[in-house]
Amino acid sequence: MNIVERMAAFDLASFAGSELESTSEDNIIGELSEPSRRLLGLYLGAQQRIKRICGEYQELSSELEHVVSERHGMVTEDDEPKLERLEELRRQYDVAALEAESFSGIFWSAVRLEFEVLLNKHCLCVVDGFKVSWRYIEITNLPVSIKFVSSDPFGHHGFGRG
């Protein structure tokens, strides 16, 4: 299913939005549109899948490590289903991580386009369900130097770590 189909299929009725509560530091700009709410739901859903996958992977790999160490490092045919499940979880993680990264980029770009006042803001939040906010942050000292470097194989220049 492509992104447009996923957005259309997303059930907004059962989605309450962000659980993050607003603070006195929030500058509330407005409420997310329906398409942006759907993107937020897809993004948060991918993050939840990542947490679930990582939890199961960690539990299963710890269990397998314990059993194999009791056998002095010997892996047997009995371990094969667990090893296959670990491989499947790794594949699921790769997909969910790509989804989360993609949905995040699309979502925050959509928010900036929906609320143009946010174009030059850097600390954006969704709070109290679907309220869009920005917070002022002061950067006084960067821990790494920044210089122009080429990290692009096509020779385009941009900022990078020095």
Could you please describe the fold and organization of this structure?
- With 162 residues, the protein is an alpha+beta fold.
- It is built from three helices and five strands, in the order αβααββββ.
- A three-stranded antiparallel β-sheet has the order 1-3-2, with no helix packed on it. It has a two-stranded antiparallel sheet with strand order 4-5.
- Mean pLDDT is 85; it is low at 147-162.
Rg is 21 Å
Mean pLDDT: 85
Q: How far apart are the termini?
A: 41 Å
Percent of residues in β-strands: 5-15%
How many alpha or pi helices?
Answer: 3
**Quaternary organization:** single chain
Can you tell me the overall shape? elongated
Question: What ranges have pLDDT less than 50 throughout 5 or more consecutive residues?
Answer: 147-162
Q: Helix and strand succession?
A: HEHHEEEE
